[in-house]
Amino acid sequence: MTLPAGTPTGLFIDGKWGEGSGGSFAVLNPSTGDEIATVPIAGLDDLDRALAAAAAAQPEWAAAPPRERSEVLHKTFELMIARREELAYLMSLEMGKSLTDARGEVTYAAEFFRWFGEEAVRIDGALRTAPSGANRILTFRKAVGVALLVTPWNFPAAMATRKIGPALAAGCSVVLKPAGETPLTSLLLAQLLDEAGAPAGTVNVLTTDNSGELVGAALADSRVRKLSFTGSTGVGRTLLKQAADRIVNTTMELGGNDPFIVLDDADLDAAVEGAMLAKMRNGGQACTAANRFLVQEGVAAAFGAKLAEKMAALRVGAGTDEQTQLGPMVSERAVDGIADKVDRSVAAGARAVVGGERLDGKGFFYPATVLTDVPRDSAVAVEEVFGPVAPIITVRDEDDALAIANASEMGLTGYIYTGSLARGLRVSERLEVGMIGLNRGLVSDPAAPFGGVKQSGIGREGGYEGIEAYLETTYVATNW
Ligand code: NAD
Question: 331 CA distance to ligand 1 centroid (A)?
Fold first, then answer.
């Protein structure tokens, strides 16, 4: 399994590829643990060059006809679709996800460029009359400026396009800092944006395995006007504090502890199918992954048995193997974290009916796992597991389910399965999350507002809302 010829492995600054001043670091294939490439460590002088390029390009880009910005995004959408197999393979190789998941992600990721290409030409203002009648209130929208984009490794393409798409549509220029585990997909995306005509300096990509230093320096730089971060709540908290010094406009997409509620009138086969999607997409390494299954007591045993059967049947293997349904975790550290949470929960009384023991051999594998009799305060119930582990907690009724679900400080996604739409909507209204799958195991959609409440984040990406993060409103009080 080698890197496809022509995959870019340099820094992308001001429309040119180059080395970094900080040396280089290795990118591993999690399916084997072997090195697949080295990429530069961007130094502070590289950051300076990237910010200078972004700041120089931004005013002209913002002043370009919206149709022109739209066309660049449309063209990149088309290039991504045309090169879907190459992108999917690269993502499987550096991140470990199955090819099925990777192909799905390429489509999902490309759709952000199509959607925001459509939004670029619909940025509007407003005209109102002051209640006093004394004047008119005229508003128009302006791009925020240079945007720093920091993305995680779990969706290497989609987390980048979900930010680059609206930023470019709004007239911002960007400096993207991808996760150190998965820099290659971002570099290939930069190549496609360049090919599609994004002017030099509008898109810059800096790779590093020392994110703290680079991102900290960027946030302290007066050229940076926007931070959009997707990642863990802990790092998000640190970056919010750093952003506070210069009052940098921030969007935060953070961690989850997503409840999957199954009520006793649910279609159990549909619930299990939804559970497999909500739990196992990306091997459970998704912020939208169902983290805890809250199942009403009358159906808990039947649901658990059906889910266990499906989980046990999954084919584990290298991400790039066409047969694979469950690939490796992203790193050895990720496997250690999952194993630790499962072990602590089993010690506290949970029972592993499928999996539960880490797998030997090369690569970073953890098996599909179903835990029953899970204590409500055990590690897998209260912490984000980020792996293929399905803990089942039995609940008395919907009030009990809601009490457990809402006790969390996280509030990203929730899932509800019920035969009654009215009951589902009633529970939806009371669930403290930003997104809900009602009789559906998948919520992600470029046309929908994605984001969380509580410590799961601030702001929304995608939908009509997504471009708002990159726009500011100017108001003119005027008489005529
Ligand atoms: P992470 O927070 O470790 O890393 C995210 C990004 O921040 C990476 O680019 C990383 O290199 C960088 N980073 C790490 N430490 C930093 C520091 N001190 N200063 C600046 N940057 C730093 O998260 P991860 O492990 O890559 O991703 C998994 C997490 O992301 C999970 O918690 C998951 O729920 C969350 N996530 C959220 C969403 C969402 O939309 N809400 C989507 C995907 C993932």
Answer: 14
